[in-house]
Structure formats: structure tokens, C-alpha cells
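Hi all, a correction to my earlier message: I attached the wrong file for Endopeptidase S2P. Here's the right sequence:
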Amino acid sequence: MRVNRARRHGAARLPLRASPPLIHRVTATVNAISCWYCDLKIYALNEPLFRFGRKHTMILKLWFSIGTGFGLTALIGVTWILIWQLFLSSDTRLSNLFSSLLFGFSPSLRISMSDAGYLFISTLVSVSVHEFGHAIALASEGIQLEYIAVFIAVLFPGALVAFDYDLLQALPRLTSLRVYCAGIWHNAVFCALCGLLLFLQPVILFPFYMHAESPLVLEVASPLSEFLSPGDAIASLDGAAIHSVQNWMEMTALLDKKILQNSSDSRYFEGFGAVDSRKGYCVPNALLEDGKNVLLAKNRSVCPEDFTAFVKIYCFDPSKSVDMDGEDVDLGRKENALCLNTKDIVNLEKCDGRGKVKKNGSSCMCSEDESCLSPVQFPDLMWIEITYSRLYSRESLQLRSSLLDSNTSDAVQQTCGGTFIFVGDMISMVHSVQLTEYQPRWGVFLSKYLPNKLEKSLICTFHISLALALLNSLPVYFLDGESILEVVLSHFTSLSSRKTRKIHQVCVVGGSLVSVLAFLRMTFINFF
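and the right structure:
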């Protein structure tokens, strides 16, 4: 038995130092400050928590008994899964997924300063929930707290509770299990609560925000900064409607994959890139006379600034019974390539060289004095048409206030929006804009950041709380799993106390080594 020792539980799980019992607490529990560690001890919550625990003792004991079942299941399940994925599993993706959940985030994850703030606050909140679980469980068993402390070790926040360890040891084993499993149980419940709030966020914010109509631009950098501004809504990408951030990511990935496939196709002209016959424009023949000839430099087509290389699409003749579905027709010839001004093309009528007959009987839908031309594309120089609307301009707000029907968004897009052509690298385009799926209903532009910040906070808290629940389930030094395993071995085995301590020590050493190996393995895979 450990004599005169206050048991401490915390996220960082620093080595425990001897602490005087509760009745001798006078000056030894002052706040600690050093170059690598500082803490704040709180005594004001001792009595309120104790009264709350004693008042609802029966309900709380039932609550924490459920948590005991969860904690024991987690101890066995998480330990077995960790051993399996480290030594028995050959599925690297599954192993990485579990390791990332266990340790919160991948070590190779790049974290910005704003994300670091989310992580710090989420960690502090999750650790506090963990420790309040222990504190309420102790109070429900009639054990008075010594203090609750919040600390920062190096750069990592944490919390702990101090109490009379001897008094807990004198109580039944099930009581100890309820106390030790309380932190894990509260982290798991808190994680589920964060997940539920994430799922219900569109419903909760419905009175103030529209959801999944079209993604709203929060921040924009080069190369899209010359076209978009914060507050603009992206309506479509290459003619496909965009309703969410997921749509935006999926559509850009699809376009990038498509141009890469075209670049390896036999119809990829050497030095002239790839041509998509489904992306054509009816260009007046008079404008073709002003076009510039394409130059070749380093075996690649080159046009002046603001100009793009185009080739003529020879349209499908509907009188010929040839099924062109799923295949490209004769896309063009090198001698027909011209450099045309991008701004002159964007507002022209669309045409399609894939044999889709329109109402006028023409498969390209161009008049006799027009030609159907398609832009030449390279993997790092893609032609993308983006339609947007300025939702919070003065004209847009006036139009919204005057229209009350369901076609308001369409009218705003037509009147207060526009279309531009982006020619460049797809990856740089995707990463140059930060989007949110929420649009303020009442035109309060400053509130556009609130849903995104709330969503980020919930996601970070979900991951960290889940990581704390899983980590503390492991039989590892200074974590709750060590104490849970000690009580289980003492309660469910008939071995002598000496043999029980040896088995406990072997299990804890093994659990610590396996956890370290899993972390190092994940780090090695992500970095190398």
C-alpha cells in the first residue's frame, strides 16, 4: 500500500511525486512554476463537486458503473487491436488509421498557427472533461478532493485531481474501478456528443445560416485572388453545380484525373497538349482572323499572356450512323491551332463535338459563320470555367430583399455574379481558396466565419477526446489503464500479491513498449 500519497491523473501523466494527505495540506500545495512546467491549483470547486456527488450518489454510481464496463472493454479491445495492427496486420492503411485515432493526429500533419490554437483549446477542454469525470466519481463515493489543477508542461496543456489515495484503496475494488474508468468514460461520451453536434450543426444553425446551397469563399489567395473575393459564392465548375465543399474537392479531383488520362492518350498532340471535345466554344470566324499562331518552345505550345491555344473540333455528322458515345471524335489538327484571348471566349456560346444533336439539328450548335473550338490543356495548365455570385454586394442585398420566391438565388447569380476562366495548375487553384458550406441568411457578412470555426473546434475536440479515451485505456505507465489493470488483477485473480505485482509490471512494461513502437512505426511510415 502506498502511504500518504495523493493520486494524480492528468493528460500528460507526468511522474507522480509524494504529496501530503488532505488533513496536512497547508503550504505544500502552492502553485508550481518552472521553466518547463507551471500549474494552477483550484480549491473553490472541492465543496460544490462533493455536494453534487453526495446528492446524486445513486444515479452517479449507476452512470459510472456503465463507464466501468466501457473502460474494461476498451482496455481489452484497444490493447488487442494495437498488438494486432503492429505485429499481425499487413494492411498499412488500416494500421495508419487506427494509429492516427489513437494518437489524435498524424505526426506528419502540417499545423498552422490558427490550427495550433484550436488544438490547444480542444486539448484543454478534453483533459478537463476527463479529470472532472474522476472528480465527480470520487465525490459520489464520498471521497473529498484535495484540489484540481490545470497545468502546462513544455507546450502541452493538461489537468489533474489530487485526493487521498489510501482512502480509495480502503474501499471495495468496484469503487476503485468506477473512479479509474470515469475519465475514459467521460471522454468517450464527450467524443460522441461532439460527433452528434457536428451531425446536427446544419439543423442547429438553420435559423441563421443556409447550408449546402453553394460554398462561400472565406479566404482567397493567388492564383484565384484576381477573380474571387471573400464573400463570393462558387456556383458551378465547368458547368457542374457545386453545392458543398465536398463537391468542390471531388469535381477538381475528377477534372485533374481526366486531363492526366487525356495526356497519356494517343490523341494527345505532341507539343499541343490534350483536347476535350466536350468543352467547345462557338468562335466567330472573324475573331479567328485576329488569332495568333501558336509557337513551339521546348517542344510545347506557347501563347502570349492572356492567350490560350485552341484547335478546331470537327463536329459529328448526324447523317452518318456512327455511334460516338463515350469516344472522342477527330479533335483537331496542329495546323488549325490558334492563340485566342481568353476574355473574348468566356461569354461565347458553348458547343459540343461529341455528336449531341441540338434543336437546330446541328451537332455543334454553332452557326455557319462560327467554328467550334476547344482549348488545349496540359496537366499543369488546365482550362476551367468557374461561375460565381457576389452574395453580399449592395446590388445583391437589394435584390434579395425585393425577391421572396424560391428563385432568389438564381436571380442573384444572374444579376450579381459572373463567369471567369482559370488557366493554370489545378492543385494550386484548390489550395488557394478556403470555403464554407454556410451562408448567413440575413447578410451579416462578419458572421460567415462562425460555422467554420465551430466546425473546426468540434472536429479537433472530437479527435482529441477520442485519443484520450483510447490512450488512457492502454496499460501504460502513468495512464488510467495502469491503475485499471492493477485493480482487475487484484480482484479477479487468486494469486499472491507478489505474483500479481509481477504480472502487472510485465503487462505495463509490455503495453508501454508496444505503444511506443506503434507511435514510431506510424511516424516512420508518414515521414518516409
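Sorry for the mix-up. Residues 290 and 340 are 8 Å apart (CA to CA).
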